[in-house]
TrEMBL record:
InterPro entries xref list: EGF
Keywords for the protein's UniProt record, in alphabetical order: Disulfide bond, EGF-like domain, Signal
Protein name: EGF-like domain-containing protein
Species assigned in the record: Acropora cervicornis
Signal peptide location: 1-24
Length: 208
């Protein structure tokens, strides 16, 4: 009887030890997640649970490393580096720049876009209208600038920074885009030249 109780006690003790160690692994998984720092480099990479489970007494910190696909700081112009460990590669999250390493900046100039148009869904005339360009070959379809607010046409429509908090945005139709009345600078969109934008939605076309 005593042997049976001793065996049962030892089994219970073993199960308790395993439970404590599994809890430690779970806690380590939660606390030792990769932490992004400057340039979004992930200095820590946790070992898999399978590796940890094969040696409960292993120091968790030995499972960390500082060589990642982002270690060379590949992203330029304040781009954030996202390591792709499975592919031993990385992806740069660019803001205002393009290219694999965010190396290509905006050109800060007007460009032609023959497909660009404005659409007024709600306006003082309660007349939803598509406003095409006066000339699809216009060199002022859209302004391409990373440090400048949305600008369409020769300032036919300009959305300023913090547009929902000020009235620095404005409309001046008729320079590049059609104005229904035919009168340049007629405030067809809002009824006022200056405006405050409560919500902005941007749509773009992608080619397959």
């Amino acid at each position: 009887m005593e042997n049976f109780e001793l065996i049962a006690f030892l089994k219970a003790l073993l199960l308790m030890q395993v439970a404590v160690q599994l809890h430690a692994i779970s806690k380590a998984k939660k606390e030792l997640r990769p932490i992004p720092v400057s340039n979004a480099i992930f200095y820590c990479q946790q070992k898999s649970l399978k590796t940890l489970a094969n040696g409960f007494q292993e120091d968790f910190h030995t499972g960390l490393r500082n060589d990642t696909p982002c270690s060379s700081w590949p992203c330029k112009n304040k781009g954030k580096c996202l390591p792709l460990y499975g592919e031993n590669n990385y992806k740069c999250l660019c803001k205002g720049f393009k290219g694999k390493n965010c190396e290509n900046g905006r050109e800060n100039r007007y460009k032609n876009d023959p497909k660009a148009f404005l659409f007024s869904l709600k306006n003082p005339t309660t007349n939803p209208r598509k406003l095409p360009q006066l000339d699809s070959s216009s060199s002022h379809s859209v302004y391409d600038g990373a440090n400048y607010g949305l600008t369409l046409g020769g300032h036919d429509l300009y959305i300023a920074d913090s547009a929902n908090m000020n009235s620095n945005s404005y409309e001046s139709l008729g320079h590049t885009y059609t104005v229904p009345s035919g009168v340049r600078s007629d405030p067809f969109l809002t009824g006022n030249t200056r405006l405050r934008a409560n919500e902005i939605e941007t749509f773009y076309e992608t080619a397959e």
